[in-house]
Queue: 2 jobs
Job 1
Amino acid sequence: MNRILYYHQQSNFSRKIRILLAEKNLDCELKEINLLNKPPEFLEISPIGRVPVFVEQDGTVIWDSTLIAEYLDETYPQPSFYPSNVRTRLDCRKWEELADNLGDNIINLWVLNLKNNFTSNRYRTKLETSINRLATVFERQLAESKYLLGNDTWTAADVAALCSFGYYSFRLNEDWLLEFPNVENWFNQLHQRESVKSTVPIPLN
C-alpha cells in the first residue's frame, strides 16, 4: 500500500510532516481532512481526532506530529533532522516542544478571536503573554547561531518553529516580524527552500 498522510493544508503540525516528507523525498498520498466534519475512516485510525496522521506502507499508523517526525527520521535517516548525540538530541526535542507549545498558543488565540469572545480578556492576555515570551526565547537563541541548534544545519526544532511562526503570520498578522529581527532573518532564509515554500498555508475559497 502507499504511504498516506491525513492532513489539513492550513495545519502547522501537518506542515511539519509535509516538509520532512519533501526533504526526505518520500512519496506519500495526501488525504486532506475536513476538520469540521471528520470522516469515520479518519476517526477510526486517530483516537485523538487530530491531524496529522501517518500510515506507513506496512499499515503502521502513527498520530502526533512529533511521533511521526521521529519515526520518519529513524526509518529514513537521510537527511537527518534529529542529532545522533543523546544530549544534542534532547536539546532538539526541547526546542521542538517549545515550538509546538508556541503553535498551540497561537491556535488558541486565533480560535478565541474567531469566536469574538472578547469577554475572556484574562485568557487572551495569558495567551498573548505566552506567545511573546516564547518568541523572545527564540529571538535570543537565533542571535547566537544560524539555526536553533547551531550553524551547521536545520533540525526538527527549526521545522517545528518555522511552522508555528508561519501559522502566526497566516492566522493573525505579520507584525511579529518587526519585533523579532533574528527570527525574521531565519524565517525568511528557510522560506527559500522548496519544501518550505510549497507548504505555505493558503486561505480556503
Note: The domain at 4-75 is CATH 3.40.30.10 (Glutaredoxin).
Job 2
Amino acid sequence: MKILITNDDGFQAEGLQILYETLASGHSVAVAAPDRERSGCGRSLTLRRPLFVARRELRHGGMGYIISGMPVDCVKLAVQGGLMPEAPDIILSGINAGPNLGTDVFYSGTAGAALEGPLLGIPALALSVLRPGKENYTQAAVFTRRLLEEFYSVLIGRTRRGGGQGVPAAFNLNFPDAPWRGLRVTRLSAAVYSNDFELRRSPSGEEYYWIKGELHTENEPADTDWNAVRAGCISLTPIYNDVTDELTLAALAGQREALDRAAGGGGA
C-alpha cells in the first residue's frame, strides 16, 4: 500500500515518527510534514510566500519532505507538486498530540490535511490521541496498521456520491489512553468552547492577549465522539467536505420565487 503521512505538529513530532516506523516495514510510505508546529491552522494555504522543501532519506527506504508551510500545503505538494512519483492509496494525518473532537475539526491542521485527501480523490484518516506519550502513540499506530490491512475495503471503499462520481471517504479517529474499551462509530460532538481572552503585558510593557477555552459537553448525545473517548473507547467519525445546511436549503426552496423576485428576477 502506498501511504502519505503528514501532520500539524511538525516533521520531528514523536507521533508522526512512531506512525512511520510502524507502517514503513511492509508498505511504501512517504512523509511530507511542516518544518514546525502548525497546530490550529485549519485548512490554511501558503499563497504569498515560497515553500521550501528539505528532503530526507528515511529508514526502511522511505522518503521524507520537510516543508516550510501548512499541513494542506504538504499534502498538495506531495500529491500535485510531484514530490511523490505516484498518488498514494491513502493519506494519514497525525498522530496528533491531543484530541481533535467535535468542533475541533474546523480549526485543526490535522483534520484539515485529512479533508484535503477526498478533494484530491484520495481517502484519508486523521489520527489523534487524548494524551501524548510513546505508549499511546504506539498503540494507536499499531491499531491504524491493522485497520488499514484488515478493513481497508470496508472503510475506505465507502464513497459519497457527488458531481457524478464517488468521493473517497475521510475519517477522524481519536484514541483515549490505552487499553481501550472497544471502538464506537460516532458523530461529531456539537460541544463548543467558551473562550476567554486574558489581557497580559510583556516584560517590555507591550499588551497582548492569551486565549483560554473551556469545553462544555453537558447534555451531549450518547453517540458523539466526545462521549466515546470519555468512556475509554476509540471514536471513528466519518467526515466530509460538503458543509451545505441541507435542512435550511430545503426550507429556502419553498421561498425560491419570493426570494428571486426580491432580487429583481422573474421567479423562473
Note: Helices lie at 14-24, 71-79, 109-119, 134-155, 225-230, 246-253, 256-262.
